[in-house]
Amino acid sequence: MVDIDRELLPALEQRRQQHLYRTRHVLTSPQGVQVETGGRSYVAFCSNDYLGLANHPEVVKTLQQAAADWGVGSGASHLIYGHCHQHHALEEELAEFTGRPRALLFSTGYMANMGVIRALAEQGDHIFEDYLNHASLLDGGFLSRARCKRFKHSDIDDLEHSLESVGNTGRKLVVSDGVFSMDGDLVRLPELAKTCDQYGAWLMVDDAHGFGVLGERGGGVAEHFGMGVNDLPILVGTLGKGFGTFGAFVSGSEALIETLIQYARTYIYTTALPPAVAAATRTSLKILQRESWRREKLQALITQFRHGVEQIGLELLPSATAVQPVLLRDDRLVMEVGAALRQRGYLVGAIRPPTVPRGSGRLRITLSAEHSEAQVDGLLTALADCVGESR
Questions:
Q1: How far apart are CA 218 and CA 211, in angstroms?
Q2: Is the whole-model pTM more than 0.90?
Q3: For 207-221, what is each residue's pLDDT tens digit?
Q4: Which of 73, 222, 277, 285 has the fewest CB atoms found within 10 Å of its own CB?
């Protein structure tokens, strides 16, 4: 009999020795800026709940009522009578919100990205991905059987060189994050759209970390840069971050959405999102549009945090978003500082390779509209002390 543990354990031990081992922490409280885990309360700077909607009373109330009205599970895929009124209404509202003819719900962001790319590109086609794209975008490219090439991060010249090299053979799909999840910087969307138009390529942007946060109405990078469906034909967003719920969507033209319904395997062959979650997301969508103070407060906290880190003398990446990476570059130091902050009552993301390139280990600190100025000041004080003690 094959001893699977004998094969797996050495690699796990090696990962521990390299300070790359991942562990889980069990929350015993709702998501928010103040959470409980391991019998202790912490201020959390590691959630993607940027607008503080994950535990919003109106959203919770909608979910509870919708579960009573529609049940818990959808029971089937969207194409086999699992597509209910709540799903359909949310799709129509997301289409209007993004300024596009149609929108299509997916069960997760990972499934949306993989499904879209595989539906639109196949053997003989070409996919061009930013080097720092999310893993779901990269996996979608690998599984599509198209020829995939990664261009240097936000390097339009490198992208142009790659596009020129393939000539007019097959479809060309350019794929990028909207807000890069580990660096927090924005896609160079106008230049990217212009380049795609010049070389006859389709442009796909996953704006998981931009929706709700960027733009006057929370419309993300497309609204921020004023890009319509003709400039940005394939727009993806997740619902578990700025929206505070769960799931994902793709918005675009009538032909795009109908193509995905016919060919996106991760849409066709999976159970539909629970109707109650779709209903709760409809409430989140209303709140994030009407309560612009959440985005305004978030921007004020971002400015406060960046100024504080500069005063400490630590290295920040050029991010104007809720994702604020503090580069420490040493994996051991990242783990030690993360643990020391936890001892002081603060939770932050300790990010190491392979999630980020080697030599760029960092604390990924995320801010929420629910944080207070005092909580940000407390984190800054603790950060200065912990880094100083660990070096």
A1: 6
A2: yes
A3: 999 999 999 999 999
A4: 73
